[in-house]
Amino acid sequence: LPGPPPPKLEPTSLVKLYGEFTGTSNRKGRCAVILTEKDLVVQRLTSAPVGRNKVVLSLKDCVGCRAYRGNDSADTAAYLVAYFYPLKRRWMSSRVSRQRVEQGFRLASLQDPQANLEEAEKWARAVRERSARQQFPRNGEWVLMSQMSRPCQMMLLVNPQSGKGQALTLYNNHIQRMLNEAGIKHTLVITERQNHAREMLKEADLSQWDALVIMSGDGLLYEVINGLLERPDWEEAIRTPLGILPGGSGNALAASIHHYSG
Ligand SMILES: Nc1ncnc2c1ncn2[C@@H]1O[C@H](COP(=O)(O)OP(=O)(O)OP(=O)(O)O)[C@@H](O)[C@H]1O
């Protein structure tokens, strides 16, 4: 029998890396993986019509990519996994929202486990570098993802009472995983009482933090801003990048900020 048809390739000038791997769950299902300047293209190598077996993932939606060895030391394979959050329509809904897509591959073409891992790491680096080169509109200009100073150490404040406990559930079910996927280190602070965050930010050593992210309703952000403004060095302190993740019941402030900042 003839083998599967060769994958339809992108124009060669656009192809940055090409590899043939298997999936992580189905080791028999081979796929051709193509990295271009803009996308990661995954083409399943079967004899079925091409369209149905091709997935094109935009690197603009990629938050991270990593390589690793499996737990089984007898297995010489290495693994590559990339995390995307594309806008998608939910089932039975007319609205689009970002939904998580994980693409995992098993690289086992070489005998040497270290060589397989190096190949997987080469891919992971290439995906991360190309993702960082994607452009986004900001304040009427195009900026590179890598120019949006990506925080490397952030304090994430969560009010466990916000939105009847919703903020902490969102952190546990989504945010913690996303930050790990993106390789962003963070320290979690669960506020214990009213004015806890305000008092802490009034005294904190801000040189440790690249960003303060507040996961709550309006109340905790208000406390953080007041804590920063009550410091003797408030002019410098208030320049610390702040982020808000809506976790309260109303989230009016987060909605306004996101609306006006585009
Ligand atoms: N552990 C805690 N227990 C009780 N109150 C807390 C705790 N941590 C923070 N707070 C206080 O809870 C107040 C209300 O919080 P927040 O605005 O975040 O939530 P929300 O009222 O549910 O949201 P929204 O403003 O969207 O309605 C804040 O002013 C904060 O001081």
UniProtKB/TrEMBL annotation:
EC class (word): transferase
Protein name listed in UniProt: sphingosine kinase
EC number: 2.7.1.91
UniProt record, GO biological process: cellular response to growth factor stimulus; negative regulation of apoptotic process; sphingosine biosynthetic process
Domain DAGKc per the UniProt entry, residue ranges: 149-262
MF-aspect GO terms: ATP binding; sphingosine kinase activity
GO CC annotation terms, alphabetical: cytoplasm; endomembrane system; membrane
Record-linked PROSITE patterns: DAGK (PS50146)
Entry-linked InterPro entries: ATP-NAD_kinase_N, Diacylglycerol_kinase_cat_dom, Lipid_Phosphate_FormReg, NAD/diacylglycerol_kinase_sf
Main location: membrane
Subcellular localization, as worded in the UniProt entry: Endomembrane system
Species annotation: Oreochromis niloticus (Nile tilapia)
Keywords assigned: ATP-binding, Kinase, Membrane, Nucleotide-binding, Transferase
Domain of life of the native organism: Eukaryota
